[in-house]
């Protein structure tokens, strides 16, 4: 995947792994929330490569700017972040199937490197998760349907958060977004994969502002054996 700035304050994201559903997710969030996201101008496919043309967002990633921020400004930024997740959590999943908006496979760290599904119902999604939990030889209780499906980014890390010159936070890179159980965002932020790639000070600041889903996040972590070694069973 490549992101290239072109004339007239535009950027193009393209590659064999870029999908039009990312643009669809960005537009959906833009139309249904007040979350600052890129403005999509054009989506097209050429020689099996998808291109998404968007307006440039001027600023720096939170990854680059976190260390220089004062504690009060960090609090302000993270309060914005928490507000955005609350907005996503308030969106109704009625009429939507689990997973990405195009009804395709679920992708992300909890879905094996090959993806999973597509799932037509929440029950089907939970059955898949519980099978992976059982295959990992764990004794924890199964996942239940008491948690609603919410619109989830699945890759919220400082490299996908841009702080502009007015200290307004923007969320980019919606390629894995979709309708997932409400604990998914929490689990993605606190996962070991996140700890390996970003400043650890950001993770406690983010998690402290979210509902606590430690129990469900631990279940997802317990699935990793099956996700790695039994992706198709």
From TrEMBL:
Signal peptide: none annotated. This is Kinase-like protein. Keywords: Kinase, Transferase. Residues 1-233 form the Protein kinase domain. GO terms for molecular function: ATP binding; protein kinase activity. The lineage of its organism: Eukaryota, Fungi, Dikarya, Basidiomycota, Agaricomycotina. Pfam families: APH (PF01636). Coiled coil: none annotated. PROSITE patterns: PROTEIN_KINASE_DOM (PS50011).
């Amino acid at each position: 995947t490549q992101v290239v700035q072109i004339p007239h304050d535009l950027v193009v994201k393209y590659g064999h792994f870029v999908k039009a559903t990312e643009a669809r997710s960005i537009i959906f969030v833009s139309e249904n929330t007040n979350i600052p996201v890129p403005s999509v101008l054009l989506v097209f496919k050429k020689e099996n490569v998808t291109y998404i043309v968007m307006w440039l967002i001027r600023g720096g990633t939170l990854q680059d700017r976190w260390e220089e921020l004062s504690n009060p400004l960090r609090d302000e930024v993270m309060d914005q972040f928490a507000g955005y997740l609350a907005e996503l959590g308030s969106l109704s999943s009625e009429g939507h199937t689990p997973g990405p908006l195009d009804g395709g496979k679920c992708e992300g760290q909890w879905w094996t490197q090959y993806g999973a599904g597509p799932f037509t119902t929440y029950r089907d999604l939970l059955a898949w998760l519980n099978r992976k939990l059982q295959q990992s030889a764990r004794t924890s209780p199964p996942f239940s349907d008491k948690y609603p499906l919410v619109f989830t980014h699945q890759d919220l890390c400082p490299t996908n958060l841009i702080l502009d010159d007015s200290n307004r936070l923007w969320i980019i890179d919606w390629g894995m977004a979709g309708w997932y159980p409400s604990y998914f965002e929490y689990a993605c932020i606190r996962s070991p994969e996140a700890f390996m790639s970003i400043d650890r000070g950001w993770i406690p600041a983010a998690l402290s502002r979210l509902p606590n889903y430690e129990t469900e996040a631990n279940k997802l972590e317990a699935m990793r054996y099956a996700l790695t070694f039994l992706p198709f069973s």
